[in-house]
Amino acid sequence: MKRNKIIQNTLILNRITFWLLVVVLTGVTFGVGYLFTFPESYPNLRILNDGNPSTFNLCTECDFTPKSILLSEIVLGMKFWILLRLSIMGLLTILIIHFTIEILRSVRDLKTFHNQNTLHFRRIATSALVLFLINTFNFIDEGQYGIGLEIDFPLHWVIIALFSLSLGEVFKEGQQLQEDKDAVI
Asked: Which of 59, 62, 67, 97 has the fewest CB atoms within 10 Å, i.e. is most exposed?
């Protein structure tokens, strides 16, 4: 019974995380969309972006650096790129959590070696690889210097993709063993 409690608790935690991310992504999308649509509402607001989404900041008291630019000076295409990139990253993270919930649900219901689990692991790997690509290349508005390209290699997404593909193959092998066992009986 302890195994089912751990799975149930993990499932509850993933559901909470899923809905929390949905609410946060919706709020951030509308908030950033509003700021980009009406930048004159906040004339001193600067965007400090060095290409990494974790250091993407909106601030009013930033020191002016080449990485810091007034929000009103950002071109429309760059605003669209920032909003699109953040939205895709959030949606793919939500999808990964959704697939994890589906896998945990099937394990909880004792349908561990089911064809859908292999498919869910492959979808997690695909989402992680897309996140790797999105995080690898980033265009940055550098104000008077133009638009720059920054390249980063977030290897954690590749590791998650490889781990998911490996688990998918383990579940596929388990499914084949389960089918063999059922055929013998």
From this structure: 59
